[in-house]
## 1
Amino acid sequence: MSGDEARNKGTERRFYIDHDSSNAIGGPEGVRQEVSLYRKAFPDLVFAIEDIIAEGDKVATRITASGTHERDLPGIPATGKRVTIGGMVLTRYQNGKAVEAWVKFDFLGLYRQLGVLPAREAPAGTSR
């Protein structure tokens, strides 16, 4: 691993500018607002880095987020349920700084755990 790749992995452990399609505002301000929304709804929210891989100017990170839904999300009253979802971030670095990232979290899984959407049924003849 090059020195740049090691530095980029260290920076990735902090934060990013994202291209999450669910983030209507975008950029650093959109990220701040989105994180604030979820931190308010899940006051004990924690993120765990499961894997982090660097190659060239890109770092891929697999994340697990978990917390207790203690306050309302827009359109979803607090449920008191503990949830865990996975996510992936692909970040591009330039001169040691994150310049863009593509972020995806399993919000469908979140909504199912909160009971907002029905749990997925296993296909006939299979088991989970």
## 2
Amino acid sequence: MRLVVDFTRCRGHGICTVLFAERAELDEWGFPVIDPADLDSAPLVRRARRAVVACPRGALSVETSEPR
């Protein structure tokens, strides 16, 4: 699983970076940069899902990682 941003919906509120600081930070324009690494623990998945629910634009989702 991984956290993904839909930049067509994101407006740079930054709530995701507050709620999921372990894997999200803001770029120089105030938009999130999400670490693409797998969410490899239950606590990370819970915090990522909390950020998804809190996003005011619905720009975040937790997706299942595709095997390569």
## 3
Amino acid sequence: MTEKVLVTYCTRTGSTKGVAECIGTTISGLGMVVDVAPVEEITDLSQYNAVIAGSAIQAGKFLPEAMTFIESHQHELKKKHFAAFLVCMTLAMSKGNSYRGTVSTWLQPVRDIVTPASEGLFAGTLDLKKIPSFSDRLKFRISILAGAWKEVDHRNWDSIITWAKELKVLLDK
């Protein structure tokens, strides 16, 4: 039987969608059938052998829609190969790697529901035009002026592809 994998995500500005699509393309290239879709579109997991779920991070948390997906499908997810990833700007800060331990804790609410076999932590994209809240845009602009980060795409595609390729071993178990 061909493995069928779902890569599902929740995003605010599109950065997490790009990461999910990259993961899906990579796994598809390894010979698996892959669907990539936002969590809001997923109602049935029965056709999938594995699920990879990701979310953007806001205020140190998975987006509410992503947590609702995990909570409402927890019994099915526990019976499948499951991996989780997050996309956040903290990892894009000038000393972002020093925050990896803290960023990893932001997956704890997911771990409390279903334990991922693998976890991916990725930096996102900072595009002020896509941030809906004026106050958030202002905070980011001040942080940019202070040198905390730059308004660019901080996603490390090689890291994302490497993580996705490593999932093949987990998905084949």
